[in-house]
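User: Please predict the structure of the protein below. I'd like the answer in structure-token form so I can feed it into my own downstream comparison script.

Assistant: Understood. Taking the following sequence of 183 residues as input:
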Amino acid sequence: MSIAMRFEGHSDDTFSVHDGSGSHSQDNAGSGRPMIFLIESPTGGAMYVWGQYSGPDWPKGSPACWMIGLQQFDEGEALPNWPMLWGTSDSGYSPLLIVTAPDDATVRAFPSGADVLERGRARGVVDLAELRKRIWQAIHEYAEVSEDMNKDGSDSKEKLRSAHKVDAMLDVYLAHKKAPRTV
């Protein structure tokens, strides 16, 4: 037996997979951040499926369409030898990927809140008060960089790095809020 998993993008902020048990979606609120699903089979094989919306002229001259890609589960591990079919979804602005996985395969959003929490713990961020302090420091840093960029019109790479730092810390904070209080 097998499960057909259908991956496609919707609007400009939702990436979903439809499988035998229903539909699972991720919404990035139009941030442009990629969304990832992890497919794992206990009898062999795992891989990531990435979805990202490319807004109009992002990069310059590109259409506003979805991109779907595959990633190996780990270095040295080949992609599973599962049948895959590529096409265009009914929307006309998203590729369609159908992965036929073993019937014991599961699919879940990645990173999940637990994955983000573990990443925070690995970085030594386990105290919620300390995490709040770090978030506020990063927000102030972002505001300073943003103000400097607006004054002299210099390259916005530093501004983007600061925004990503704030964003990553907020992910860890939200995972802490959803996770049990014991660490």
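That's the full token string. The chain is about 30% helix and 35% strand.
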